[in-house]
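During the first year of the project, the team set up a workflow for recording each protein of interest as an amino acid sequence followed immediately by a discrete structure-token representation. This format lets reviewers and collaborators read both layers of information side by side without switching files. As required by the reporting guidelines, we include two representative entries from the current panel. The first entry is reproduced here exactly as it appears in our internal archive.
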Amino acid sequence: MKELEDRIREEGTVKAGDVLKVDTFLNHQCDVALFDRMGAEWAEHFKDRPINKILTIEASGIGIACSAARHFGDVPVVFAKKAQSINLEGEQYVTTIYSFTKQREFPVIVAKKFLSADDHVLIIDDFLANGKALGGLLDICDKAGATVEGIGIAVEKGYMGGGDRLRERGYDVDSLAIVESMDPDTGDIEFRA
């Protein structure tokens, strides 16, 4: 998606440790109009899939998942929670993920009443690096018996291999911008052609 690549080039900041900061429009301050156009891109890519639910992880994936849901007939959005709370009741699917950005493991939880074998899921997230967070969401879908119809990613760090490994496993991963390299010294960002 050229518009997203342009925004990353114009407003993104490359930091040491393979960090791409895009908080002006994606994961702190949200450009809702851009999110809507991203949702339209995923809707076009996955238009032949019987998607009836979108799954993401808190917190950065929620905004783009909700915008995308509008393009899939307002299907429900379920987000995996990163902490147990008194509001989570009943049986739950639980797994552990490693967050590249936070550099630590988190439990992720989805109430069983929100995900079942009847669901055809599109997983949406803001970033894909090594694929560990997505692995947790895929594990939850597997435990629920849900069918994963595809994975929509805003920004994939292609050079880290997570997306390519998921594609090799047979998942349809539609990343709107795939970063092939980035340099914290120069700020240069190269995208996959």
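The second entry, processed by the same pipeline in the following quarter, appears below.
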Amino acid sequence: MKVSLVYTSTTPELIELVEKEVGEALPEDVQVISYQDPSILAEVRDAGYVTAPAAARLVGMYMESVSAGADAILNLCSSVGEVADAAQDIGKYTGVPIVRVDEEMCREAVRLGKRIGVMATLPTTLEPTKNTILRVAREMNRHVELVDALVDGAFGLDQEQFKALMTEYAGKIADQVDVILFAQGSMAYCEEYIHEKYGKPVLSSPRFGAAALKEALIKKGCM
């Protein structure tokens, strides 16, 4: 069995956590292949939306994964999650499901509360994540209220500085929400700390993405 991890941008912390979660969710003998194209997120960030060329390069990585014999694909960037949505028919046709890292996280947030705080360092990640929460809330017949926390000044910080900034911004919304959701997988290492500090459920995507990848492989009959 082979799975493909598709990144548009990475940090060492994100790669380590994703591989750990996928490794724990799947059998030991699963082969993991990775594709990365940081230019995609850079282009999306500069343009303020997912451009056609950026979407084309992402879909190209999906097709490379299919050609390489992947049994399933995990899309690891929430900024381009709607491209993964648009590619679902390709996944069905090829028999290689394309799993979003953040969709099940969004469902869990809707299950946990009506008022959902959404934290991101980029507007281009914040908006697609909010769109996904609203979509899954409609599918679950739930009404939700979203509270934004756009974390300014996060780029270039080390782990401790980033954690301190995340904690500061989480504190601004903690009293207004039932649950806090991280729109970017790279934020995940702050999850437990912020949960303990503010006593709110805090959700990050890598563990949910790994579980959804496992479920897709089970549904396909690979496990």
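For the second entry, the following points were noted during internal review. The longest strand covers residues 2-7. The radius of gyration is 17 Å. Both points are flagged for discussion at the upcoming steering committee meeting.
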